[in-house]
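Case study 2.
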Amino acid sequence: MTTSNCCKFRILDSGDVVIMRNLLVLFGREFEQNDIYTKSQPDDEYLSELLGSETFIAVVAIMGDKVVGGLAAYVLKKFEQKRSEVYIYDLAVSYQHRRQGIATGLINQVRKIAAVRRAYVVFVQADHDNPPAIELYSRFGTRENAVHFNIEPE
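Prediction:
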């Protein structure tokens, strides 16, 4: 666990299922998608296995005993070269704790993990209508404009 001025950062492992559930509640509340993040959560065994895998990263920011921020990321092994990349899938900070460096701290934690796992890049997407996220991510890297498509399985 790493400590900053605002909070403690914790990289979750297979024993942190309860904390992961708290992170899911935070994501549901902050993204206004409670149904997606809280109604059909997987069982403890599934979450424990996910948290213990080499292909998933969860980092939380804790104040006292409360999760006030967190991110979930995936490690993607590449096929064109022997390397991997880390994709930040979700990042949220509770409304009342924003603008305190928590998101920056979370990203820095995943950058450290990426370096240890020898990933060549960490990447993240931001919606065009989310200027705070674009501003945050612009401090860390190069902006690329892409068009994102969701393709339904057959």
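The longest strand covers residues 66-77.
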